[in-house]
Amino acid sequence: xxxxxxxGSLIVLSGFxxxxxxxxxxxxxETQEGYAYSVSATTRQPRPGEVDGVHYFFVSKExxxxxxxxxELLEHASxxxxxxxxxRAYVEQKLDEGFDVILEIEVQGALKIKEKVPExxxxxxxxxxxxxxxxxLKGRGTETDEVIGRRMKKAAQxxxxxxxxxxxxxNDDADECAARLHALIRSQRQRIRSxxxxxxxxxxxxxxxxxxxx
Length: 214
Ligand code: 5GP
What we know:
Elements: E1 10-15, H1 21-31, E2 35-37, E3 40-42, E4 56-58, H2 61-69, E5 73-79, E6 82-87, H3 88-96, E7 100-104, H4 107-116, E8 121-126, H5 130-140, H6 145-158, E9 167-170, H7 174-188, H8 196-213
Parallel strand pairs: 1-7, 1-8, 2-7, 3-4, 8-9
Antiparallel strand pairs: 3-6, 5-6
The protein binds guanosine-5'-monophosphate (5GP).
């Protein structure tokens, strides 16, 4: 009899700018298997060190609008003056292959995903304190004070939406946070609604077997 391969889970990870999502995910991917990271498209300019196709697909506003028109994006949102969106094809392919796909996206996009894909798991990453968040944003040294100010303000607004998420994790230490995130994601596989494909297939196989027994 065939072993049933379940479809992966769709995991949405959000968190204030500077909270350390990138570092935590790096630790997760280095230590665990079975994950796929969805690379977003954006109209924002690359920061130093960012690579096209790795961190983002950096595209023009015209190309982004074409992607919206052609329904190539699972969701998209505008954030601090730029467009960001999740290319659909890669996510579908990896879920079908059984990978847990991680979307690192902001709140508006996350809530759109929840509407479209109710079994998606929404996780919010919080800093241990506001001071630590500010220090991390400053320490990154890639943005002007004005942009940091806008991002802090955005963080305060976003805090109101956190209640709509399923889980939160606090990033006090990147490796420990990654380990907690992994445990959380693995436990989702046991949820009934994430396992419907498996359960239905099992039921069908049982029905076929009972037919043969007669
Ligand atoms: P940053 O400019 O700092 O890389 O990202 C700004 C915000 O946009 C972050 O909160 C990030 O998670 C979010 N973001 C990145 N990609 C996407 C996407 O594809 N869709 C949405 N809705 N937000 C995204």
